[in-house]
Amino acid sequence: MYLFIFEAPSLQTCPADFEVNTDAGKPTAMVQYKTPNATDDSNRVSVQCDPPSASKLGMGQTKITCEAIDSCENSAICKFLVDVKGKSKLSMFWENVHQRLQQIYPLRNPKQLVLLILISLLTQTQQNLFLPRNFQMVPHLLSASE
Predict the structure, then answer these.
(1) CB half-sphere exposure, 13, CA atoms < 13 A
(2) Which of 2, 25, 105, 141 has the fewest CB atoms within 10 Å, i.e. the most exposed one?
(3) Mutual orientation of helices 89-104 and 110-124 as an angle, nearest 10°?
(4) Nearest CA to 65 among 11, 2, 145?
(5) CATH 3.50.50.60 matches 10-85
(6) What is the CA radius of gyration of the chain?
(7) In 3D, which of 59, 58, 51, 18 has the Cα closest to residue 35?
């Protein structure tokens, strides 16, 4: 005697869409999520997700598909999105420069930041620009209002 089950498994607790940030300085993130629970009349149901939890995903949205299959090959599917957000190395560099400059010179407005960055770049490259060795930038200009 064979038992045929025509009812598909039931997936509970399908994860909601979520966002993660990339690993520092890398274009990917290791994404972990809880595999949904499934129940079925046969009590023999397996759940597989693609891509699986703990996969490295690139920046952008990735659709995760989880499928529950019972012993009679009935199935149920749940889907959710993972959005991997990241920053380019250049934006991370400028963010770091900004943080360091804020520690040295507490700035009151964005114009001061631009001026300080230009002064910093010119100071570091003064030999390449054929500036006289005794040439010095004047940091007190940063206190100007506007």
Answers:
(1) 8
(2) 2
(3) 100
(4) 11
(5) no
(6) 28
(7) 51
In the chain, CATH 2.60.40.10 covers 10-85
Beta bridge mates, 11? 38
Query: Which string of DSSP letters, residue by residue, matches 93-146?
Result: HHHHHHHHHHHHS--SSHHHHHHHHHHHHHHHTTTTTT--TT----GGGGGS--
**Beta-strand relationship, 75-85 and 18-21:** parallel
Residue range 4-20, pLDDT digits in tens = 557 888 888 899 999 99
Q: What is the pTM of this model?
A: 0.58
pLDDT at 145 over 70: no
